UniProtKB/TrEMBL annotation:
One GO MF term: electron transfer activity
Taxonomy, superkingdom: Bacteria
Signal sequence, renumbered to the chain: none
Protein name: Glutaredoxin family protein
Gene3D superfamilies: Glutaredoxin (3.40.30.10)
Glutaredoxin domain mapped to chain residues: 137-180
Alphabetical GO biological process terms: cell redox homeostasis
Pfam families: Glutaredoxin (PF00462)
């Protein structure tokens, strides 16, 4: 059965079933590291890439290789697992299932601060703060309906935000390109990331 679970973990990673989730994790009760990385014995390239990105940061990492060769790893995985995806990054404020460099760096920046990140990530994500406090930033366009819907929602609910039209400003376009978004709008609250517009998700983002 455990071998089957490992196979599922590997297959899920191959098709990039990753996701960034903003939710406090009970990290302190499980490790004295800043972040935890769960890998599998058959994860291969996604896990190699995940380790490489974590080495770019200055955070303390505990890696847990999940498999029969590592007694106790299954029990530790059960405490945090909600889906069969590897690698799995756990921070104090969220998780990333699978591998995506920008989502890893965003999650770590949200948890540990952008100063622990490599220069390219720090330069982009630091622009989402004002005097050390996070600000809500929306990357979008004028023609995208969901961008217009978001602006209407913000106006009706007196929510302050910074609009970054990626078609009208080359610097915003450069930052948006680095953030590797798959569409519009893309929201950031400090280093917290939200792809697409959903009223409840935006409300949780700025809590």
């Amino acid at each position: 059965m455990k071998n089957l679970v490992i196979m599922i973990l590997a297959v899920a990673a191959v098709y990039k079933g990753y996701g960034y989730f903003n939710k406090a994790e009970p990290l302190a009760s499980m490790t004295d590291a800043d972040v935890m990385l769960f890998t599998s014995e058959v994860c291969h390239q996604p896990c190699i890439d995940a380790r490489a990105v974590l080495r770019e940061t200055s955070v303390k990492v505990e890696e847990i290789l999940v498999g029969d060769s590592n007694p106790g790893s299954w029990e530790r995985l059960k405490k945090v697992k909600r889906s069969a995806v590897a690698p799995l990054l756990i921070t104090k404020t969220g998780r990333v299932e699978g591998f995506n460099r920008v989502e890893y760096l965003s999650a770590i920046g949200d948890s540990e601060g952008v100063d622990v990140l490599p220069w390219d990530a720090k330069e982009v994500l630091a622009s989402h703060f004002y005097n050390g406090s996070p600000k809500l930033v929306m990357y979008g366009t004028q023609w995208r309906p969901y961008c217009q819907k978001a602006k209407k929602y913000f106006a009706e609910n007196n929510i302050s935000y910074e609009e970054r039209d990626v078609e009208a400003n080359n610097d915003y376009k450069r930052k948006y390109t680095w953030l590797q978004s798959s569409g519009y709008p893309l929201f950031y609250y400090g280093a917290k990331r939200l792809q697409g517009f959903d009223e409840k998700a935006v409300a949780r983002l700025v809590e």
